[in-house]
Amino acid sequence: LFRVQARVLEGELWAAGRLAGRPDSGAGSWPATEEQWEADTSRVRVAVEYEQLPDRRTVALAQGSMTDGRESLSLFRFDSLTGLPSPQTLDAKWNRFPSFEQIRDSVKESGGTLVEGPLRYWLSPTGLGAYRTYFGVSQNGDPSLVWVSLAIGNHAGAGRSLLDAFSNLRGLSVPLITPNTPALLLEEARHWLAKADSALRSGDMEAFGSAFSALRRVLQTGAGRHKS
Q: From 118's CA, which of 62, 78, 91, 151 has a CA 20 to 30 Å away?
């Protein structure tokens, strides 16, 4: 039912835009829906996004859910300031991050496989937000979160966690790639210690917190490798 409604919203009456990720608008071509838990895990909602040509920007998001057996459908529209680039454009932008290339190479060199998670959307006070997670799967099948790509409006960020990606998006940090040798770990720790000291001297407690968190992660990684 949601797929049928999504096709109706694409039509002239509602003109939500073109369903993203669908090669054509012919009969029988159905959109791929994305399922996601609500924040309180009380229910699952499905969503599809619409883009505008030729700009290839996401201009609308339709969400469907069911509560106590009753179905509901919501359509959110966005302008050039509150919308997002299309999913294909977002991925191309995220994949150009030098740190992402390092993560991809690091997983491959360790004999693992990099697995791309689904694109997730959420509604923020400033517009539409999106993120995609990446997992490194080791040779014995153990997965671990290795990267998060994030976008809100025309701003993009990335990092080892959602918090890191959001900090990078706000310009408070750079994506952290944990070095593989003790010498590089020490160099990385000195870098973030200098950042934290500079922020503390200037009274910028937000920047200090970001730098201190990065320093702590480097030290914890070094301690973990020393124990192993």
A: 78
How far, in Å, CA of 183 to CA of 205, rounded? 29
Percentage of the chain exceeding pLDDT 90: 17
Q: How many CB atoms lie within 10 A of CB 7?
A: 17
Model confidence pLDDT, tens digit, residues 13-45: 999 998 886 555 455 567 778 788 777 777 888
SS3 assignment, position 204? coil
pLDDT band at 212 (very low <50, low <70, confident <90, very high): confident
At position 213, the amino acid (one-letter code) is S
**What is the Cα–Cα distance from 191 to 199, expressed in whole angstroms?**
13
Whether 184 has a pLDDT exceeding 80, the answer reads: no
Residues 23/51, Cβ–Cβ less than 8 Å = no
**Which residues face 67 on adjacent strands?**
70
The answer to whether 174 and 210 have CB atoms below 8 angstroms apart is: no
The pTM for the full model equals: 0.68
Q: What is the DSSP letter of 153?
A: T
Q: Count Cβ neighbours within 10 Å for each residue of 43-53 and write b for 16 or more, e otherwise.
A: eebbbbbbbbe
**Can you tell me the distance from the alpha carbon of 14 to that of 8, in angstroms, rounded to the nearest whole number?**
7
Which structure tokens are listed for 18?
Answer: 């073109």
pLDDT of residue 227: 52
Rounded CA-CA distance 190/171 in Å is: 20
